[in-house]
Structure to design on (255 residues):
DNA sequence: AGGCATGTTACAGG
DNA sequence: ACCTGTAACATGCC
């Protein structure tokens, strides 16, 4: 899409978390996409003349490439280019697509307070210690996009398992060596997962697309009542609910 | 068969 | 101001 002009935006179903703006054609169809960037879990398409599409995939949003004009169940928006089309599909409608100019984008509630990217030097021990003095569990802290950008439910369980930190620990009770390990394994797990194309839990969602093979590397997520891969045969993985989200961990390995 | 869980976020209310 | 629970939705699994 980068460097190309979208010939037409066809809104198939505007109902997402927020309505898809109905002036996409008027505002963008003459303009070239100059750049495409990611920030946290957001995708940003940059157009000429200070126009930006801020996109979030929610739980089940995805894009597919199609050579033909086709219309499948849960399709929402079609970007038509000269020789192909890109279609946004979202089963649960938790994703969204918003149109902003530069200032609106930077001031938006979505990006304004967002924490550092986990794979940069900004996510370090000093930063962590200063911002973890809160009365919430370490699992909730890692999930907070304003603390660190981009971590989701699956990776938070995986990170704390590798770091040997109990997900129910209060974030303000962590020792520096524990903080160091959490940071180290955040970077390690993310890098590994990216290499393998991410994690696909329910592949029916993307049945005609490539799935994320990090699923095969998961050490705790989804392994309730199974034998812990670290302490081997001695303890079973437990599942608990924290802030409405499932967490998996080993009581023996994670203190 | 129906209740519950699923990769997220925003907001109401304590 | 901080924290938790819940709703938004469609689908698949016990």
């Amino acid at each position: 899409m980068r460097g190309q002009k979208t010939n037409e935006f066809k809104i198939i179903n505007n109902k997402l978390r927020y309505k898809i703006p109905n002036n996409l054609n008027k505002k963008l169809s003459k303009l070239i996409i100059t750049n495409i960037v990611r920030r946290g879990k957001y995708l940003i398409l940059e157009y000429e003349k200070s126009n930006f599409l801020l996109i979030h995939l929610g739980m089940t949003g995805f894009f597919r490439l199609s050579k033909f004009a086709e219309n499948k169940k849960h399709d929402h928006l079609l970007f038509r280019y000269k020789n192909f089309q890109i279609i946004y599909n979202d089963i649960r409608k938790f994703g969204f697509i918003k149109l902003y100019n530069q200032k609106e984008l930077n001031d938006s509630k979505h990006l304004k307070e967002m924490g550092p990217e986990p794979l940069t030097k900004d996510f370090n021990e000093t930063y962590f210690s200063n911002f973890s003095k809160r009365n919430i569990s370490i699992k909730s802290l890692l999930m907070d996009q304003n603390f660190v950008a981009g971590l989701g439910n699956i990776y938070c369980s995986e990170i704390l398992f590798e770091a040997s930190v109990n997900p129910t620990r209060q974030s303000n009770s962590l020792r520096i060596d524990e903080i160091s390990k959490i940071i180290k394994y955040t970077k390690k797990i993310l890098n590994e997962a990216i290499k393998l194309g991410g994690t696909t839990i329910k592949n029916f969602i993307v049945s005609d697309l490539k799935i994320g093979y990090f699923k095969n590397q998961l050490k705790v997520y989804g392994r309730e009542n199974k034998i812990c891969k670290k302490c081997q045969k001695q303890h079973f993985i437990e599942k608990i609910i924290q802030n409405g989200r499932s967490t998996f961990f080993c009581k023996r390995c994670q203190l």
The beta strands of chain A are 8-11, 33-39, 42-47, 51-56, 61-66, 75-80, 85-90, 96-100, 238-242, 245-249. The first strand of chain A starts at residue 8 and ends at 11. Residues 17, 41, 56-60, 92, 94-96, 109-110, 143, 145, 152-154, 198-202, 205, 245-246 of chain A lie near DNA strand B (CB under 10 Å from a C1').
